Amino acid sequence: MGSEKCGFAVKALIVGGIIGALLIVILIPMSFSAVEYHQFGFVRQKSTGTVNTTKVYSGGKYFIGPDYEFKVFKADTQFITLDNVAVFTSDKLEVSITVFIQYSLRKDELPLLHKQFDLYYEEIVKNSAIDALKGAVPVYSTRQLILNRVQVQETINKAISERLGGICCRPGCPYNGSCESGCTPYERCADNQKGLFLDVKGTQLGKVVIPDDVENRFLRALILQEESAREELYQEAQVVRKETEKIVAQIRNDAQEIKQNATVLSEYIGTISKANYTATIESARAVGLKRLFSDLSITDQKYKSSFDYLRTLKDLSNIYLTVDFQQRIAGSFGSGSK
């Protein structure tokens, strides 16, 4: 009997060891749970559904036990499209606006998000963004929505960011210079000032749809504005043309005046030159005659006059002189034969 009991005990131990090993092999892999790189997670007990929000887990594998799993939230950027939201402008007209929003959850405030909204925050975020949009637009007129898109987008972005992200400074922002203007220091910020516990990364203003009759009035106003600008440019062009014509006429007058002055000056210089030429010739002639009469010993004024007369006749182009045996000098005047 003793040996049978010992054998039974050994068998029981062996079976127990096998079962324990099997349990270890089965339970250890079941004790590991993963959080994807694009997720945040809280540990949740499967049997009771209790969620432990004291620690937020990022992407990775964790040994948390077989009766536990991760309750996950999105850690990457999430997108909202507010499509054709009806809003009123300051001039009491209803327009439709489309806005695109990008946001992400705050890891450090995820317990607060879980406490208030659990996993059902997306619709709340969208409705809050619509409320912020409807509150921001009415300060602008319909014309401003069309003409001042950059300013309108900045106003919408500020309103949505404060509604979704709150008015609290982010932790550590004084040290890296990223604090929003006028934000409340984080250490003094209450939970109800933190918005919906997320960061708005950006908003873009999409299409703005206005009523047809208003659009037609705007188009007509723009057409009139362009026509007015065209007429103004046309008038300026006319003025420029007149000024150009005036300048051209002035330049031509100046050129004509310069030409006339040059002609008069040229004639004057020519007259002076001819006068000087004649004076020089006559002076030289007088000197030459005086020397000639002196060298030939001609003193009688009669002979001097005859010589000067003959020289003068010789220089005339329409005089032809001949000498015969009857007369010392014979000549014919005009263009006849010699």
UniProtKB/TrEMBL annotation:
It holds the Pfam family Band_7. InterPro entries: Band_7 (IPR001107), Band_7/SPFH_dom_sf (IPR036013). Residues 48-242 form the Band domain. The chain crosses the membrane at residues 12-32. Keywords: Membrane, Transmembrane, Transmembrane helix. This is Band 7 domain-containing protein. The lineage of its organism: Eukaryota, Metazoa, Spiralia, Lophotrochozoa, Mollusca. It comes from Potamilus streckersoni.
